[in-house]
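Anyone opening a protein record will find just a pair of labelled lines. A complete record is shown below as an example.
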Amino acid sequence: VQLVESGGGLVQAGGSLPLSCTASEFALDDYAIGWFRQAPGEEREGVACIVNIDGGTYYKDSVKGRFTISSDNAEKKVYLQMDCLKPEDTALYYCATDYGSGPVGAHTHAEYWYFGHWGQGTQVTVSS
C-alpha cells in the first residue's frame, strides 16, 4: 500500500493550490482518504476526508467553502483543491487511508489513528 502526495508549493495569500494523492496496491472504491496537515509545533489535524464507499465528504470548519476534496477511483487519485489560501493554512499536508484500519465515517474522519497508511507529505506555504 502506497500513497504519494504532490502539488504543494509556495503561494500568496488568496491564491490556490491543487494537491493530489496517488494510491497504489489497493482500490479506492471501498476506503476513505483523508487529508491532514501539521504545522511546526502544532498537532496533526484533519482537513478533509472522502469516504468512497458512500461518497460522504467532510471538512474542518476553517476550510469549508475554500477547500474541495474529490476522488477519481479509476485513476486512484484523490484531489484537494485549495482556494482562498491563508497564511494559517501553511503546513505539511499528508493524505492517508483507512485501508487495513478504520473504518472511517462521519464521527471519525478527523481522527488520525483511524488511518493506517500515510504518504510522506507535501509542503504548502502561504505568504502574507
